Amino acid sequence: MAKVKSKWVCQNCGYETVSYLGRCPECLQFGTFVEEIVSSVEKVVSSKPSNNVGGEIKISKIKEIELDEKVRFNTNIDELDRVLGGGFVQGSLVLLAGDPGIGKSTLVLQTTKNICETKINDKKLKVLYVCAEESPLQVKLRAKRLDIEPENLYLTNQTCIDEVINQIEVIKPDFLVVDSIQSVFCAGIASSSGSVSQIRECTNVLMRIAKQKNITTVIIGHVTKEGNIAGPKVLEHMVDCVINFEGDKYKQYRILRCIKNRFGTISEVGVFKMEDCGLVEVNSPVNLLIEQSEGASGSAIAVTLEGSRVFLHEIQALVGSTNYSNPRRVAVGLEYNRLLQVIAVLEKKVGLNLSKQDVYVNVAGGLDVVEPSYDLALSLAIISSIRDIPISPSTVFIGEVGLLGEIRYVENIERRLKEAKKLGFKKAIIPFINEKVYKNLSSIDLQIKQVKKITDAIVEGLSND
Ligand code: TYD
Ligand code: MG
C-alpha cells in the first residue's frame, strides 16, 4: 500500500512546506496553509514533463515560421474583442476571473453563441462547455432565457479533468469552457477540488491540451475575499491571458479589464450592463457613472481615461467631526493611500486641519477609478464638503495632485475635454499646459481654466462664473 504523506500548501501563492506555518514566507499572508495529501500516484502525475505543451518538438528559425491569418477569431462582442486585443487567439488559454455572481458564466455563454456561428475553413466552430459548478439543466435554463441555443454547443457536467480530456477526444471542440477551475479535479491528486495543487494540475493539463490540439480554452476562476484569484498567483503565470470582470454585483455596470495578455496590450477595458436579457455592451459609457444631485455639496466630476475609453466619474466626499480618537478615512472605489496623500497635501498646502475630521469618499456608480487624474476632483469634493459649498454640476476636474500641491499634467487631455463637451459640461479645470497644446484646446467650446497649484484649482472650482 502506498504510504500516505502530507504537505502544507499556501492557498494564496502555492508555497509548499512539510509542516504547518502561521505565515507564508513567500507571500507573507497569515493562516493560508492547508494540509494536502500526497499519494504515490500524485508523484507519478507530477513527474510528467509539464512544459512540453506543443506536442511534437521541432526547432525553427523565427523567419521561417508562417503566420496564419485565421489565428484570431472575433467573438462579435466588441467590448470583449477589444479587451482581448482583437478576439481570441486560437489555442490560447484565457482565465476569466471575478467575484461570484458578477456575470462570468453569463458572459461566456453569450460568447459561445457567437463563436458557434463563426466559421474557420468553412466549418462552424464547435464548443464544449464543462458545467462543473452548475448542472447542464441550469445552464440550459439560463441559455433559454438568453435565447442561446446554437447547434454546436455541447454541455457536460463532468468534473474529473481526465474524463473531460476523453470527451475532448470524442467531440473534438475548437473552443472549450471550464466553469469553474475551482470545481474540477484531477484524479491523480488526493487533495480536494479548489486546492492549489488541484487548480495547478488541472490548469497544466488544460494548457497542454489547448496547445497540442489548438483548442481555445477559457477557464473561469473565482476571486477570494481579498480580491485575489482564488488558488493563486500560480494560475496567473500559467495562462496566456487574464481578464478580470469587475464591478458591484448589486449595480448594473461591469468592467472587463485585461491584466495579462501574451498576445496584445493590457490597456483596453470593456464595459457591460447586466439586464434581464443578460449582459449588454455599453459602447459609450462616458456619463453613466454620474448620479449627481444638484445643489449638494461634496461632489465633483472627474474625467478618467482607460485605454481608448473616457469615463466621467462622480467623486463624493463627506467630511464631519469625529467621535473617535483616531479620525476615520474611508475610500470606496478608489485607492485608500491616494486618499491619505490628497488629505496630507490639503493639510499642508491649503492649511486645512483634518486631524479631528472623519473623511469618507465614494465613487458613485460602483466602478473603481484607478487612473490618478481623479486627484483634483477628489480634492475639490473634500473641500466642497468641508466648506459646504456645492460645485457647479457643469464643471469637470482633470489633474493629478503632486506632493508639492502642484497640479500635474495628464495624458490625452484633448480627448477627455471633447467627451466632457459632448455630454454638455461647460467648464473644465485642468493642469497648466504649454501654448502649443493649448492651441488645439481652444477649438473645444468649453470654458477651460488652467491651474498650476491646488489653491488656484480651489478658487476656480468653487467660483460659479
Ligand atoms: P452568473 O453569470 O451566474 O455569475 P457568475 O458566473 O460570475 O457567478 O450571473 C450572476 C447574476 O447575474 C445573477 O445573480 C443574476 C444576474 N443575471 C441577470 O440579471 N440577468 C440575466 O439575464 C442573467 C443570465 C443573470
Ligand atoms: Mg458561474
Between the first and last Cα atoms, what is the distance in angstroms?
A: 85 Å
Shape: globular
Multimerization status: single chain
CATH topology of the largest domain: Rossmann fold
Q: Rounded to an integer, what's the Rg over CA atoms?
A: 26 Å
Q: Which architecture of the largest domain would the CATH scheme give at its second level?
A: 3-Layer(aba) Sandwich
Measured as a percent range, the helix fraction is 25-40%
**Unreliable spans:** 41-51
Strand-residue proportion = 25-35%
The whole-number mean of residue pLDDT values reads 85
Structural class: alpha/beta
* Domain module count: 3
Q: Kindly report the spatial arrangement of strands forming the biggest sheet.
A: 10-9-11-12-6-13-14-15-16
Bound heterogens, unique: thymidine-5'-diphosphate, magnesium ion
Quantity of strands, as a count: 25
Question: CATH H level of the largest domain: which superfamily?
Answer: P-loop containing nucleotide triphosphate hydrolases
The CATH C-level class name of the largest domain: Alpha Beta
The biggest sheet, with number of strands, parallel, antiparallel or mixed sense and barrel status, is: 9 strands, mixed
Q: Please work out how many helical segments DSSP would assign.
A: 12
